[in-house]
Amino acid sequence: MQLSKWAWIMGAGVMASVAVQCAWAQQTNAGSIYTCVDRQGRRLTADRPIAECLDREQRELGPTGTVRRQIGPSLTEKERAALEVQRRKEAEERARQQEERRRERVLTARYPDKAAHDKERASAIQLLEDVTTVAEKRVLELQQQRKALETEMEFYQRDPAKAPMALRRKIAENDAGMAEQRRFVLNQEQEKRRIHQRYDAELAQLRRLWAAQMAPAAAASDVLLPASTR
Predict the structure, then answer these.
(1) Cα(167)–Cα(153) distance, rounded to whole angstroms?
(2) CB 3.0–4.6 Å: which of 33, 41, 124, 161 could bond 61 by disulfide?
């Protein structure tokens, strides 16, 4: 009985000693600081191994700043290359998302509501219609000139080749001017369709952005409403 009791006391002492050592080790590791200089020359620190420095040496420091150990690169050349590619892709994606957010902020600042967007669409269309009207007036002028030229050409119906060179040149210039103005009017109609398509796509995006802006305000007002009014 006495031997058994003595064995129990010894076992308890060993377990207590192990527990103290484990606690000391955990406390020591918890106080570690990892530091390194990344590929961009920035000095980084963290309370755990630094992912940005897996391809280079890191130092583990104790609470007093003393170096506990040096951790060498843990990646192969192929792994480092793959990591660099992944980092570059992630950086490009972050930049793309930031640029997209910036454009969205600019868009909602420019068009705070549908009325502002409709007003600018109407202005853009009106500008096209104004220049189209000028071109159409020019077409009418050319048509009037053509009638006068055809009247002159009546004297040469039997043999148009005998018409004066100046008259034939005027007719050719009239034909070219007419064709140019008609192409211009057609291009303006195509541009008008493109403008409507752009504003339609823009409006669809704005509606999502406006809804996203309104959602927090609606949620906040719903929280503030008394239960009896809901």
Answers:
(1) 8
(2) 33
Which candidate, 218, 214, 215, places its Cα nearest to that of 112?
Answer: 214
Which residue from 164, 139, 142 is spatially nearest to 153, judged by alpha carbons? 164
CA neighbor of 192 nearest in space, from 138, 126, 133, 139: 126
Helix axes 114-153, 165-224, angle to 10 degrees: 170
Tokens of 188: 């303006």
* Phi–psi pair at 73, nearest 5 degrees: -55, 135
The pLDDT value recorded for residue 32 is 84
**Contact in structure between 111 and 117 (CB atoms under 8 Å):** yes
Backbone angles phi, psi at 11, to 5 degrees: -65, -40
- Residue among 26, 8, 27 at smallest CA distance from 16: 8
pLDDT for res 228: 53
Question: Which residue, 55, 54, 59, is CA-closest to 36?
Answer: 59
Q: Give the amino acid at 18.
A: V
Q: Which residues contact 107 (CB under 8 A, 6 or more apart)?
A: 202, 205, 206, 209
Measure Cα distances from 212 to 96, 127, 198 in Å. 20, 33, 21
DSSP state of 37: E
Q: Identify residue 67 by its one-letter amino acid code.
A: V
Report the pLDDT averaged over residues 90-96.
Answer: 94
> How many other CB atoms are found less than 10 A from the CB of residue 176?
11
What's this model's pTM, rounded to 2 decimal places? 0.55
66 φ/ψ angles, rounded to the nearest 5 degrees: -75, 150
In the block, tokens 């020019």 appear at 138
69-74 long-range contacts (CB < 8 A, ≥24 apart) are 71/34
